[in-house]
Design a protein that fits this description.
153 residues, alpha+beta, five-stranded antiparallel beta sheet
Length: 153
């Protein structure tokens, strides 16, 4: 009888321990994956609009294949209405911002956003957002791959 009691106690403790480690039930879904995007100086890349209803994070990976590294490239997340304000020439509240200067892979995890809105991801090689280019008559071209993963609970 005693070995059975020990077995029951051990099984009970294992179920408690396994339950404690399974709290993170987040789901990760690739929502954008594009390769070999050519981005000329004085232009920016605009993702599709992502309509997201629940709290979430973006996991953004950019692999810069070719980049002269003369100035920083910006990666920006905006809500739908903020992009509309930008197009209309009004001031804009950037939701999330990072930048990079070198070739190679760059990975970021944004903070959690509320959802219930449309969202854009922008890769900027222009003077339109925060950093300015070094326009010197030479077209500094960025060639990159991008992957955006939606992480939600």
């Amino acid at each position: 009888m005693r070995p059975l009691s020990y077995t029951i106690v051990i099984l009970f403790m294992l179920s408690i321990i396994s339950g404690c480690t399974d709290d993170d039930k987040s789901v990760e879904t690739i929502i954008l994956s594009q390769d070999n995007i050519i981005l000329h100086e004085d232009y920016y890349y605009l993702s599709d609009k992502f309509m997201i209803n629940d709290p979430f994070q973006f996991l953004i990976t950019i692999k810069a294949h070719e980049w002269p590294q003369d100035y920083k490239i910006e990666v920006i997340v905006l809500k739908d209405d903020e992009y509309d304000d930008f197009i209309a020439g009004r001031s804009v509240q950037i939701l999330w911002y990072e930048d990079f200067l070198t070739e190679g892979p760059h990975e970021w995890e944004t903070e959690e956003f509320d959802g219930n809105d449309g969202y854009y991801v922008i890769v900027d090689n222009s003077d339109s957002w925060v950093e300015d280019t070094d326009w010197d008559g030479n077209d500094d071209i960025l060639i990159f791959d991008i992957e955006i993963v939606l992480k939600s609970n």
